[in-house]
Amino acid sequence: MKWLAVACALGVALCWGMYGPTLSHARAPNREWGPFKPYLFIGVAYLVIAVIGGAMMMKIAFNDNFSYSGTYYPAMKFGFLAGCLGALGALFLTFALTKAGGKPAYVMPIVFGGAVSVNAIAAYVSLKQGESVSPLLWVGMLLVAVGIIMTAANTPHGHPPAKATPVSGGGEANIESESPGSAPESASS
Questions:
Q1: How far apart are CA 93 and CA 109, in angstroms?
Q2: Could you tell me where the beta strands, DSSP code E, fall in the chain?
Q3: What confidence score (pLDDT) does residue 165 get?
Q4: What range does the domain containing 141 cover?
Q5: Residues 81 and 125 in one domain
Q6: What are the 10-residue block averages of pLDDT along the chain, 189 residues in total?
Q7: Does residue 138 sit within a domain?
Q8: Of 70, 87, 102, at which residue does a domain stop?
Q9: Is 89 within a domain?
């Protein structure tokens, strides 16, 4: 069954890794709308997928009941808390990629490298007295930080838009691409 857990984890990485690049397409080209206009539909998607998908998985995959009282109360309490943390994370990410001007190429490595480190720290803090942690945990967290920096610094950022420059005489423009190794193209009539 471990292969299924790995496959699901890779599915999460794929979906969440594409979250930032997809959200960057939701920006208004001329600031015609605010950066949180897409966030409303992020919430709708969370609601629809979580409620319908969760109910289906509860019933079909596990034949579970829909009671949240008594011994089931922690499922509601901590499920709601986890949902709030996920939604707040999406809110921060939306702000980082829109109003704060962040680019997915460096915001996403910080998000996911940071999430791995926060998870490790939470596990460390929850250790019972007498339990110890391998010193390699701290080495791994240092490597994550180095990996974040290396990934963000070396992620392709795409080509900048072409600039039109006026040409004397005919009013035509040369289109200059700022991508390395390309020569300017001349517009001809």
A1: 12
A2: 163-166, 173-176, 185-186
A3: 61
A4: 103-154
A5: no
A6: 84 86 77 79 89 90 88 90 88 83 85 89 90 92 92 78 60 46 42
A7: yes
A8: 102
A9: yes
